[in-house]
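Re: Re: ligand-bound prediction request (bumping)

Still looking for help on this. To restate: I need the protein modeled with glutamine bound, output as structure tokens. Inputs repeated here so nobody has to scroll up.
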Amino acid sequence: MPVYRLIEEFSSDAYKVFEYVDSIYDRIKRVEDRVKAFITIVPKEEVYSYLETLLKRGYNSGSYPKLFGVMIGVKDNISTKGIRTTCGSKMLENYIPPYDATVIEKLKSVGMVIHGKTNMDEFAMGSTTETSAFYPTRNPWNLDRVPGGSSGGSGAALAAGEASIALGSDTGGSIRNPAAYTMVYGLRPTYGLVSRYGLIAYASSMDQIGPMARNTTDLALLLTIISGHDQRDSTSLPLHSIDYLKALDELLYKEPRLRIGILKELFEGSDDGVRKVTYSCIDKICSYHECIEVSIPYTKEAVAAYYIIAMAEASSNLARFDGIRYGLKVPVEGRNWVDVYTEVRTKGFGYEVKKRIALGTYVLSMGYRDMYYIRALRFRRMLKEKLDAMFSKVDVMASPTMPIPPPRLGEFFEDPLKIYLADVSTVIASLTGYPAINIPAGWNGLPIGLQLISRPLSEPILLYISAQLEERTKLRDLIAEV
Ligand code: GLN
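Reply:
Sorry for the wait, this slipped through. Here it is.
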């Protein structure tokens, strides 16, 4: 059931929440062995007693919070007090945070329940959830396929009906990619709109937390809860909270006509099936809005710049995992620091993470810094200028979210460059900090998603088009058989 319906149900009878909790845990019991969406599942008894405490506090006597009891899957790189937070890595296998991330505090303040931490690529580095140190997650729509990544556990939990709504994080596409591959809605907010206090950092100039849901209304609801200024995150924008549901309703009422830019290179560069499905999806609203073809001629360069910057920042962010301040604990008595450090990092990090730390250190090293890192930063500025110029002509830009359908498990390992290049559409919003959404577009035997990018802080516009498309495609509230 959509979250906006659950809220209505529980507001007339708060005790119905227990039947709902049972139904989600029954579903987990039935499908989780095959899907593997979670790294940690909170025992049902704990959820029960948490809800009972809330009810005793008088939440059922009129003053009860809006999203009481709604069960949310949270990506395992977001700190949850008292619930293990591994970041998909052996390095943090036994880490139990002593505090909540700001977004978690916000979820709790409206009565939501975190019932599980979802699987992810190790330290969010990947596009398939296969680099998780624990196990890969499978796509509920086809168990031989990946669910995308790195927030693949969140997408799979939604598509398999194991959570009502979810949080992901997106550095280079990690919300939009798994949303596309699991047929759900996912939004990467404008950089600075959602606090990252308590998010385990990958590449700080691009990391963002964002909502994932099975329909646009739920997506707007969750964005409303998690967004807003936070003093504890120095990159947080000094803005008052916005009610995105209200903003969405207003736009749906006024129905403004917009200009939609069809990103030529990204459609042309996609697989045939993907192109057909996404094109016919966007076409559904082109008779109402004005659709024009636009071009950003350096999409491949954007991928290179993204990976240089992401790896450089990762090599610096991950230096803290030394076994002393953070990370795996190994015997230290009578040993020198280099030996301890080497052991911790050899055992704690997986192959992909090590590769990126090495490459990131390389692009920042003397002599190579100007050639790679500084050039990538210059490219980033130029891309932003091009995008800004484009946004004086169009309101949003459309492209396939992913240029290929969900690959088979293991397929990407045969060609590591191909996996990086598959981020061609998503990295544009990441490098510029602009908001972008994945909207389920249709089937080509497998789920296919459409991406829209818009100007900074124009999330309501993205939600508006998403709602219009959802109305036409009816691709909402879908749960796979598994
Ligand atoms: N696939 C991209 C990467 O591996 C994006 C990951 C992300 O957004 N966290 O870096």
